[in-house]
Design goal:
By secondary structure, this protein is of the alpha+beta class. The chain has one domain. The protein is about 25% helix and about 20% strand. The strands form three sheets. Strands 1-2-3-4 form a four-stranded antiparallel beta sheet. A two-stranded antiparallel ribbon has the order 5-6. A hairpin with a 6-residue loop joins strand 3 and strand 4. Helix 2 packs antiparallel against helix 5. It is globular, with a radius of gyration of 18 Å. The two termini are about 20 Å apart.
Length: about 170
């Protein structure tokens, strides 16, 4: 499997399959997602959660909508909240399976492929873009400074290896 370039891919590129902690049995479960920037109707049809261990399953279309704002006519507009770029899944808000808590903060990934991109970035001691334009929304630009610091490299790589095994 070829590792993706962390200067090109974004966190949103990994939202099609998200490994989460089941809120009922606390075992590994799966959110089948869609891109965060596709039409909301596509989210309604495609996004769902399922846990093989306890059988808990939810369709995104069956989750409650929350009031977002009141328009100029006094009508309340409702929507489902999305949680992008946070250590929870962006559709249901469940805790991510690949989440590492350290003193400096939290390192998280949506799935094993996402974690592998972060791991490859950490392993690379000379981080060059090789002529790629700067993308402020890429994984490499969104990682906190304490993650890219050389002093934390070996420690974080050991933690990532441990998280992959569980």
């Amino acid at each position: 499997m070829k590792t993706l370039n962390p200067y090109i891919v974004r966190n949103e590129d990994f939202t099609d399959r998200i490994d989460v902690v089941c809120p009922r049995c606390e075992k590994k479960a799966l959110v089948i997602g869609a891109g965060l920037y596709v039409p909301m109707a596509e989210h309604e049809e495609k996004v769902r959660f399922s846990c093989v261990s306890c059988g808990y399953a939810i369709k995104y279309e069956n989750t409650p909508k929350t009031p977002v704002y009141v328009n100029s006519r006094g009508l309340t507009k409702y929507s489902r909240l999305l949680y992008p770029n946070a250590p929870i899944d962006p559709f249901f808000g469940f805790a991510l399976w690949y989440c590492i808590e350290v003193n400096e903060g939290t390192l998280w990934a949506y799935n094993l492929e996402h974690l592998s991109v972060i791991e490859a970035y950490l392993k690379d001691s000379l981080r060059e873009r090789n002529g790629l334009p700067y993308q402020n929304n890429s994984i490499a630009s969104r990682l906190p400074k304490w993650v890219s610091a050389a002093k934390n490299r070996e420690y974080l790589l050991r933690l990532i290896a441990w998280v992959k095994l569980r």
